[in-house]
Amino acid sequence: MQGLTLVGLDRKIISSDTEKEFWHPPLEGYLKYNIDGASKGNSGIAGYGGVLRNAEGSIVFIFHCHLGTATNNMAELMAMEQCLDLLKQNNCLNVMIEANLELIINSVQKIHNGTVLDKVSKHWNLIRVFQIIQSHLQGLRTISFHHVRIKANKLVIFWPTKESATQRTMC
Known about the structure:
Layout: E1 5-6, E2 31-41, E3 44-53, E4 59-70, H1 72-89, E5 95-99, H2 102-112, H3 117-120, H4 124-137, E6 143-147
Helix pairs in contact: 1-4
């Protein structure tokens, strides 16, 4: 994995289409991961990343990775796999994951609910990643998946003042 950065933090569950347009912090006591993957062309140069924020909207953790050549779906799926791996490694609870590719959100939600992998995808290269995702989901409690529009999945950074700049652990 490339570009693992520890920096520092989300409130309301997304439900309506209007609310999917903007990023909202999670409920108190929850964390929110926004993840995204992209490729230039399909297949093309690809990468993924994610940002974890708390109920105050402060950044807790950021990750990113260059994949080489991959499809957009594979980049999104790899972002999800990396996100779940980090959550499992750090024993995180009460996490919302948001992504703008509904196909990936729906597929991972099905796996989380116990759907057999061959019913989720017929593509062998995606099935391999879904198997890893399935293993990461075992033991992760209180996790939810939400589809949002691209606008709500963007990272906008506000530079902290000296008084608010503190280093934090991931969970």
